[in-house]
Amino acid sequence: MNPKKASDIFSAIVPAPFGAMGIRVGEGLLRELVYLPPEFDEKAPADAVSEQAASQIARYLDEPDFRFSLPLSPAGTDFQRRVWSAISAIPRGEVLTYGQVAKLIRSAPRAVGQACGANWFPLVIPCHRVTASGGLGGFSNHDDASGFHLGVKRWLLAHEGVPGYR
Fold this sequence. Notes:
By secondary structure, the protein is of the alpha+beta class. Helices cover 36% and strands 15% of the residues. Strands 1-2-3 form a 3-stranded antiparallel sheet, covered by helices on one side. The protein has a two-stranded parallel sheet with strand order 4-5. The protein starts with a helix and ends in a 7-residue tail after the last helix.
């Protein structure tokens, strides 16, 4: 992916310790947040919602206890929204396994993992707080242990003070 051309799809790009966050906005609502590698340059917010999202992401990156309050576009299936609701209830500094979340919503761990990977609003819906029973698990539909996305997940868990990731 060419970072210069790809950045055109974002309303803003916010620098982050792990790279950057791409912000997509439409019709006055946040449509998507995307983890981006470091080669993406910062992009000033194009509108009020992307400015609000950029500001709140920066606050979270400084203060892991910060709580997001953004106008989210409706997304996902009923099942995905149930998973995302359960994930949103996980407190900062804690994790649940895919199996634990599945038990809470009466589902299967693999289905929970797929819903995590389909999350349109990472950070706002903290899917990084869901791990495998035997370790880190995947992240954003990636499972390469030394890859960018799992590096982001490790950084986020350390940032939030999760034991074993500090």
